[in-house]
Amino acid sequence: MKAHFSLVALLTVSFAGSAFAAPAPVKKKPVSAAPVAAVRAPAEAPESPVVPAPEGSHPMEDLKKSHVKLQKLLGKNSPSWSPQNDAKTQEVRKVVNEFLDFQELAQRSLAKHWDGIAPAKRREFVFTLRDLVERNYIDQMNGSANYKLAWEKEELKPTEASVLAKLNTVSRGKPIEVAMEYRLVHKQRGWVVYDVVTDEQSLLET
Q: What is the reported pTM?
């Protein structure tokens, strides 16, 4: 559950909302809505190189921008059956794919087992992982995530970085503070998250 919550904060959610947010009342669909096509960024190939970050690069600023985008999207109220909600769903998927590297997350989570998996199975695993995370974000749109994320500092290396933050929320009437660490790697498209550590619990280990 901690890992689920940690993502929530990352995006405004990517895993967490359901842990602390109260579910929204279910509303009947007045009309049937057409299925929404998922916006999926192509997974990077395993051999895709990690490249040094340019001088003056700040991954914390990139995370802040993604967080703000998600807050704005999730703050928009629209019926679950409406075209507006379908458009919001696609935008949420787009933002999630911009800052979270599913390929890197999948490869690191399987560690030494990755090389022994057939390419087709690797792609299937990445696809399934992406779908699960996207669905968690989308489910969050139908609830309410009341929390504050305080960004603290970033630690930089030529190709990797960590960003520290604290998330404050309320669960069952009690205030909760969660220490968070976003671990990133720099690729050609910029800084991307491959792990989130919540109260010393790594997402890769769950």
A: 0.71
